[in-house]
Amino acid sequence: MIIWGSKGRIKTIAEGQFLCPRCRAVKPYIHKQIGKYFTLYFIPLFQTENVGEYVECQSCFTTFDPKVLNSRHLIEEEIRMEHERKNFMDEIARQLDAGLSIQIITAGFKKAGVPDNSLGNILYTITNGEITGCDNCHSVYKSTVQFCPMCGSRLPPPTKLS
């Protein structure tokens, strides 16, 4: 008695990184293929039909049409923008550490077209919400600054923004 039949099987075609539409970030993926295999004594011998393919995000485990992998330029753009954001935040942190007031930094970036709410969030993140203000000239600084660079006054203890 010979037992034969068919069985569905999933195999990995490729792995890499892609811009996940659900996570909206660059995430790892697995590209999988579903095939129908001829079996003899329940052992799959060869593929008889390609049933389909899909891409699975390894972060959210959502599946997508393989066409999402064609957006390679979107991944590169996202990586470039993330690099620019990091450089932007590093530059603001350097300026704050150098003793520049938050007002001067804000004015400079407003001129460059940075939206107020974005800059506010970035400043809050960099300062950890801890700032200090000069009672004499009313300039505001990162909490690590002890003397006002504008007027030389000793700065009060930092306050935590809520």
Number of helices: 3
Query: What letter string, H or E per element, gives the SSE order?
Result: EEEEHHHEEE
Report the strand count: 7
Helix content: 25-40%
Main sheet strand line-up: 1-2-3-4
**Class by SSE composition:** alpha+beta
Number of separate structural domains: 2
Give the CA-based shape: rod-shaped
The major β-sheet equals:
4 strands, antiparallel
Low-confidence stretches: none
Rounded radius of gyration (Å): 28 Å
The proportion of strand residues reads 35-45%
State mean pLDDT (0 to 100 scale). 87
Distance between the first and last residues' Cα: 77 Å
Short note summarizing the structure:
This protein has 162 residues and is of the alpha+beta class. It folds into two domains: 4-70, no CATH class; 75-160, no CATH class. The chain has three helices and seven strands; from the N terminus they run ββββαααβββ.
Characterise the protein shown here:
- This protein is α+β, with helices and mostly antiparallel strands and 162 residues long.
- The chain folds into two domains: 4-70, no CATH class; 75-160, no CATH class.
- It is 30% helix and 36% strand.
- The protein contains three helices and seven strands.
- The chain has helices spanning 72-97, 102-111, 116-127, and strands spanning 4-20, 25-40, 43-57, 63-64, 130-133, 140-142, 159-160.
- The chain has a four-stranded antiparallel β-sheet with strand order 1-2-3-4.
- Strand 1 and strand 2 form a beta hairpin.
